[in-house]
From TrEMBL:
Species, as recorded: Okibacterium fritillariae
UniProt-listed PROSITE patterns: MFS, SUGAR_TRANSPORT_1
Subcellular location: Cell membrane
InterPro entries, sorted: MFS_dom (IPR020846), MFS_sugar_transport-like (IPR005828), MFS_trans_sf (IPR036259), Sugar_transporter_CS (IPR005829)
Protein name in the entry: Putative proline/betaine transporter
Entry's Gene Ontology molecular function annotations: symporter activity
């Protein structure tokens, strides 16, 4: 009898995570990530210069506000090393809880900060803002990779790319929630009320997402792939050293495979919003060029597209419509990547991004229909390229360094593609005296680099995900 019980117990299957729990647990962190980006980016333009840097001139205050925003990008690679170490040492579950807490608490605390207008807080208010942004970046550095591993390491056979789209959906969801909240606040509050206290609401609301995420993640069991690493005694003592020793090539390839995705995303969101809400004319651009002592060339005049001059709320609604296509095609991308393979599909989509970059001038110059076509096409391509990344980057790395490797590639790419993209785009826009031709060319150039990385990489669809170690 005891033998029978023992055999039955030993044959009992290991506990698994229900699909619904995997979906919510992997989705909530990236939703907060992109929600936070838009909430802070909007506040950084509208109120943070006056609230946290009131003693500076307007231009310097705005730059200071964006410098605080950039602190998160500096912290992200550090976070990828920190949380990657623990994700590969102690497991995905505990690390994901820690990254969510780090990110979520910092986001909520920003909504509680006193401003520099409060006597005695002139120095500490902006300093604490930078510290909170840095803490957000640390958490974000480990969040995406852990969420992607949670999804793909719990995926059934031949469904890793489909499960890998779960965390990717956080990008369009975070964008839509953040911008709907700001639209609601802009309609319901006066500018004075928003500056006084309304700006805090979006940061405090993120606490709801954090609580839901923690509740679900604490109920998780460890992923099967990491359990196999533990059972084999292959846990890396120093994952960072191991990944650079055994997978340095994959680190480089993964960084550039993600590059065009990041450049496309931040051009489609931050730059198009700036360009779409700026009013300018060819005459004003020519006058500005002459004031600089370099009149516009014939090519610049031919490719000039005036700032579109939309009201901010109107253009936000247009962006939200475009982002709906982002979400739809993120889901579509998973089955396509399973059917055709990650590499082949991503090469095809990246070719589409390259061509799309060359169409910016005619689309932006074609009125409302052209602008909506640009937003729909751009966000469709974004969904098709972003969706497979949840499987593509983790599949490049063996199981015992997978968290560290995918996190480093993702976050270094965020610096090369995301952190600098809005600044490069505005610089190229000004350099070309109001033409968006160079901005579109910049996107196409990023696509070329991604194509090269994909060409040099191998198809990862059929890698032995649970038994591969470095």
């Amino acid at each position: 009898m005891s033998t029978s019980v023992s055999s039955s117990a030993s044959a009992a299957p290991a506990p698994v995570n229900p699909r619904s729990r995997v979906v919510i647990a992997s989705l909530v962190g990236t939703s907060i990530e992109f929600y936070d980006f838009y909430v802070y980016a909007t506040a950084a333009v509208l109120v943070f210069p006056a609230l946290f840097f009131p003693n500076q001139d307007p231009a310097t205050a705005l730059l200071s506000s964006f410098a605080a925003f950039g602190a998160a990008f500096v912290a992200r690679p550090i976070g990828s090393i920190l949380f990657g170490h623990f994700g590969d040492r102690i497991g995905r579950k505990g690390t994901l809880v820690a990254s969510l807490l780090t990110m979520g608490i910092a986001t909520v605390l920003i909504g509680c900060l006193p401003t520099a207008q409060v006597p005695g807080w002139e120095f500490w208010a902006p300093a604490l803002l930078v510290i909170m942004r840095f803490a957000q970046g640390l958490g974000l550095g480990g969040e995406w990779s852990g969420a992607a591993l949670l999804a793909t390491e719990n995926a059934p056979k031949n469904k890793r790319a489909i499960y890998g789209t779960f965390p990717q959906l956080g990008a369009p969801i975070g964008f839509i929630i953040a911008n709907l909240i700001f639209l609601w606040l802009s309609v319901g509050l006066s500018p004075e009320a928003f500056a006084a206290w309304g700006w805090r609401i979006p940061f405090l609301i993120s606490a709801v997402l954090v609580i839901v995420g923690l509740y679900v993640r604490l109920k998780l069991v460890e992923t099967p792939a990491f359990q196999k690493v533990v059972e084999k005694g292959e846990v890396a003592k120093l994952p960072l050293a191991r990944v650079f020793k055994t997978s340095w090539r994959q680190l480089i390839l993964g960084t550039f495979i993600m590059l065009a995705t990041y450049v496309l995303f931040y051009l489609m969101t931050t730059f198009t919003l700036t360009f779409g809400t700026t009013a300018s004319t060819l005459e004003a651009a020519q006058a500005g060029a002459e004031a600089k002592g370099k009149p516009m060339s014939a090519e610049a005049i031919d490719t000039f597209v005036p700032g579109l001059g939309y009201a901010r709320n109107d253009f936000l609604i247009m962006l939200i419509v475009g982002v709906v296509f982002f979400g739809i095609f993120t889901l579509v991308a998973g089955p396509l990547a399973e059917k055709f393979g990650r590499r082949k599909m991503l090469m095809t989509v990246t070719l589409g991004i390259l061509v799309f970059g060359l169409l910016w001038v005619p689309l932006f110059g074609a009125g409302f229909v052209g602008v909506m076509a640009l937003l729909v096409i751009g966000f469709t391509l974004m969904g098709l390229t972003f969706g497979p990344m949840g499987a593509q980057l983790p599949e490049l790395f063996p199981g015992n360094v997978r968290y560290t490797g995918s996190a480093i590639s993702y976050n270094v790419s965020s610096i090369l593609g995301a952190a600098v993209a809005p600044f490069i785009a505005v610089f190229l826009w000004q350099l070309a005296d109001g033409s968006v031709f160079l901005v579109g060319t910049y996107l196409s150039a990023a696509a070329v680099l991604t194509l090269i990385a994909l060409f040099l990489s191998k198809e990862t669809k059929d890698v032995d995900y649970e038994n591969d170690v470095a």
